[in-house]
Amino acid sequence: MTELPKTDIIFGVFNETSSDEARVALTPDMVTRLNKSGVRCLVEHGAGLRADYPDEAYAAAGAEVGTKEDVLARSHAFGFVDRPDAALVQAMRPGLWVIGMLGSFTDEQYVEQLEKAGLVAVAMERLPRQLSSAQSMDEMTSQNSVMGYKSVLVAANAYGSFLPMMTTAAGTIRPAKVLVLGAGIAGLQAIGTAKRLGAVVTAYDVRPASKEEVESLGAKFLDLGLDFSAGQGEGGYARALTPEEQAAQQAAVDAKAAGFDIIITTAKVPGRKPPVLLTRAGVNGLHRGSVIVDCAASDLGGNVEGSTVGSTVTDNGVTLIGAPYLASEVATTASNLLARNVADVLVHFIRDNRLQVDAGDQIDQAMVVTAPGNEAKGE
After folding, report:
1. Cβ distance 144 to 186 under 8 Å?
2. Where does the record place the Alanine dehydrogenase/pyridine nucleotide transhydrogenase NAD(H)-binding domain (predicted)?
3. What pLDDT, in 10s, does the model give residues 75-97?
4. CATH topology for 146-329?
5. What is the pTM of this model?
6. Rounded distance between C-alpha atoms, residue 107 and residue 112, angstroms
7. Are 345 and 315 in contact, with CB atoms under 8 Å apart?
8. CATH code, residues 10-126+331-370
9. How many CB atoms lie within 10 A of CB 162?
């Protein structure tokens, strides 16, 4: 097998911006970092512009900026914010590498397309995040952290009063009462942000370990009077509840929700339908002017029954915001974190100056969903 010189590995990034997406999978500082690892970077024109990374910044860092056709024809590996569409998959040469959130847990047909195209597919959603060596590659954690922060700002903007207590000449305004459902990475960031803005924060999560985490941030833990002591799942995620457990949880949350002004839901299950935490009955029980931000809203559903992507106002005056694209609204920082995750995944697979899969490596075993070959070769 002929060994490739370091400078023969070219990492390509496309312009993925759209009405919902402003992030980019490579930033200029990561270009510099990858160059030190012997990787050259090729970026499509305008890829980072909406994240405030202009073409000139990439060029100054040592990347080459070109057309989509240039990136497609000359790259050996590609990094994505999301994943390549079917047309782009078909246009890729066999043996190329694709790194991104590929939806591999639920979209087997898509994975089959990647395999038929002869691509080496690395699914970021399958990262074994419990491994210390995987922490810097954890896109889900970095992007959920941004999402949790932004969710509170979105809620505050939609809410018709102050979040902190205010004492004025006209009287004292009480602080907003915020409930965060789901105390993972996004939920904890939402708790911290809401606390910093002066709200009175309560949170709930099915995982037993979450109570201590919630209270460490100065929030109260919502006692539903239920025992899901086996709520911790694999990889730090909450396990899926049984139908009976979920019904009991929904009824308890619905009953408690009426006492809050703002509810933020963050309980995503990677690649799967999110659990319904608040039913229509719970939404109808909220007072007029309440705000709900459902970070788990998607085509698969959301944490709130009836939520859809976008903003709606219910008949009883509750603003329900389905907001799956919040990380994109903080595009500069989100891209900076995402680019580090993707770059570290790429570098992980560089062995003996070429890209290859090690069948005995835990990260490789977990993340590589198609591997027709063990290296990416230049033309």
Report:
1. yes
2. 156-322
3. 999 999 999 999 999 999 999 99
4. Rossmann fold (3.40.50)
5. 0.89
6. 9
7. no
8. 3.40.50.720
9. 16
